[in-house]
Amino acid sequence: MKRYLMAILMISLYACSNAPEEQQKEVVVSEVEAVVESATALEFGGMSGKVVLIGEKITLLDKKLQPIGDISNLNGKVVDLIAVSDSLLQPTKDLCAAFWYVEIKTGNQKGIVDGRQAYQILESKKAASFGTANDEVAFFRTESFGMGQFYDGDMIDCSMNQPIVLKAKDYYGLVELVPNEYSKKASWGTDYPYWELKNDAGGYDEVTNLERDGDLIKLTIQRGFQEGKNSSELVLKWADNKYTATYLTFGAVK
């Protein structure tokens, strides 16, 4: 399925490339009203998989984008992904506010949500795993259906969160981040509530070592920057039917 943009607002960007002959590229983006009264212009293409919903207020919409329910109780929960709108909608002049609508299903509930609140679990991009087939613990990267760093090969460089989904024998979900001075550095100075492995213009995180000690999982994380890298230590703890992450260190860049 190809996601496309309807032309109204023209923004010029330089593509990130080492090739000297690379020319300046243009990204064409639609500017639409904040409130969409009809979904007749929207088409949805089928897409299977899982998304995790994140948002204090999550509204379920019908095919006409009218509210049909409050599903804020599903914040942090994994649901089925059914379809994604072909059109990218931009509710304000800020390109980074653009998003796709996403159709989801969970139990007997089915409807459409704002794609900025839906993070696709990238099963093909397993960040790390350990254990046997019957006792594996795996970490998966996620990506929201809002505007991110790139669109169709062009660099947009919008700020984005990248929460990790942990999958174990009896658990499949987000990891709450315990705030401290190191977690704030790892999250680029923000107080994001979930553990992330960064993959953006600022740096790229990679789990380089994993050790298990009872209910604790000790990780070493290396972050590569444009110049240099650092190493951090983090502990995952299982308690009260959920995982939490605590940064023990956030190393200096070398």
Task: Describe the 3D structure.
With 254 residues, the protein is mainly β. The protein folds into two domains: 174 residues, no CATH class; 79 residues, Nuclear Transport Factor 2, Chain: A. The protein has one helix and 19 strands. An eight-stranded antiparallel beta sheet has the order 8-7-6-3-9-10-13-14, with no helix packed on it. Strands 15-19-18-17-16 form a five-stranded mixed beta sheet. Strand 16 and strand 17 form a beta hairpin. The longest helix has 6 residues.
Report strand order across the widest sheet.
8-7-6-3-9-10-13-14
Give the helices and strands as they follow along the chain.
Answer: EEEEEEEEEEEEEEEHEEEE
Give the C-alpha Rg.
Answer: 19 Å
Largest sheet: 8 strands, antiparallel
Key descriptive features of the protein:
five-stranded mixed sheet; disordered N terminus; about 250 residues; mainly beta; Nuclear Transport Factor 2, Chain: A; 1 helix; globular
